[in-house]
Design a protein that fits this description.
InterPro entries: AB_hydrolase_1, AB_hydrolase_fold, Pept_S33_TAP-like_C, Serine_prot/Carboxylest_S33
Distance between the termini: 49 Å
Family: Belongs to the peptidase S33 family.
Pfam family, one: Abhydrolase_1
Largest sheet: 9 strands, mixed
GO molecular function, one term: hydrolase activity
Mean pLDDT: 91
Number of strands: 14
Low-confidence stretches: 1-26
Number of domains: 2
Structural class: alpha/beta
Keywords: Hydrolase, Signal
Helix content: 40-55%
Strand content: 5-15%
Shape: globular
Length: about 500
Amino acid sequence: MRRALVLVLLAVLGVSGCTAVVPGTAEPGKIEVKGPKGPVPAGLEAFYGQALVWRDCKALGRSAAAKASFGRRGTECAMVEVPLDYAEPGARAISLGVLRVRASGEHGRIGSLVINPGGPGQSGMVAAAMLSSRLSDSPLRQSFDLVGFDPRGVGISEPRITCLTSAEQEAVRQVDASTVELREAQAADFAGKCAERTGTRELANIGTRDVARDMDVLRSALGDDQLTYLGYSYGTRLGTAYAEAFPRNVRAMVLDGAVDPEASLVDGVVLQYKAFDAALDRYLDWCTDQCAVSTRDDLKQLVDDLRQDPVDVGGRRVLPEDVITAIVAALYSEDAWPVLESALDALSAGDATEVMGLSDTYQGRGQDGEYDGASTALTAIRCVDDPPVRDRARLAPVVDQVKGTFLAYAQPPLPSLDACAFWPVPNTSTPHKPNTPGLVTPVVISTTGDPATPYQAGVQLAEDLGGVLVSFQGNQHTAYLQGDPCVDQVGDDYLIQAKVPTTWLTC
């Protein structure tokens, strides 16, 4: 807590706009004290009123994507302190990475737009940097500082989630786990290593419940009385959790690619299997007259061939699961369909290089063979967020419901327990209908052909939050700020002018 107390002293003294040397570096940074703003929970004054020291981001990048995006012009970074455990705020503080790109307009700055790109496990810092370069001189960039943060356990933020080494992750991928016993042994080993290498107290406090509270600390430290938020995919779950915890602290909230807050994890898996299957049908329809691999039978033949004789790529075996991963990765957007076509056609000719490349990218494996930790963070956070399934009997109906889908053919689902069944700490959230008295009307965007967060989940979230639903007709995961003029106009008008659509609409 010592560092947090230093921040309080800076706030009391009214230090602002000064230059200081950032601890652990020789680099000067600009100190800003803009908090506390808005309601401050008792015992958290030190965190809500802390100073932020902004400096160049380049040295903070760990992954290839982070290193590339953190060097973009106009980015600046800081570390914000939050309690590891909000039940004991004075016991231990952890640091979260924050990236900001200042509003480009000379006049009319509204405040900060805090962004979460999803996952869980994806870096908000990388997302904010990349989004700022895409938006250029858009009205949104002129009106808001774009702010992304790495949630606890993600990217450069603490606590560092460590479960398997990159070599251990690679070894797991190279095993065709075709029995319940083998899969459960892998799951139990993963959970055990997470507990040993990360720590149970750390694992107990990395869930969405705690990240939502971190967002309110960040809001205050940034100097905003209320939060303006843009959440994609899992970011809609995080936004919903924030809206429940701090409904009156929200200025505006866009939730795109919704996670249904009332759906169980098991229900969500079934819906995703079916949604990806429908997306695969749309891809194959597109492929009919131009692809060498253009039917389900063609795909099944590729899978059967790999089962009997895995293809070698650089000394690594390409298994049916890699084909599934490649297909899933490419079905997130129509723009990736030509990439998938090329990869599958090459595989049919005996070259699995492109398929393995897609699979590696989706699983966070860099060209150096190191994994970026995003998939590990996803599992760890999910295991804290959702009630575990420890009864195999509950999984049997799931296996029955997904039969007939291509994903189930290529990687037959087994009634095996996952890592969460062996998780060493209890879950901190459960599926439920959110209670958000006093919340402003949020805008929920749902895409009709979204394979990852099926359309109906957006309908449910809009109803639960009393929001306005924008239905986008397309085949992709999420839609706002991705080039559709109708969706972008609705989102911009809402975030900038607080202009709420009068009715649900379709773009």
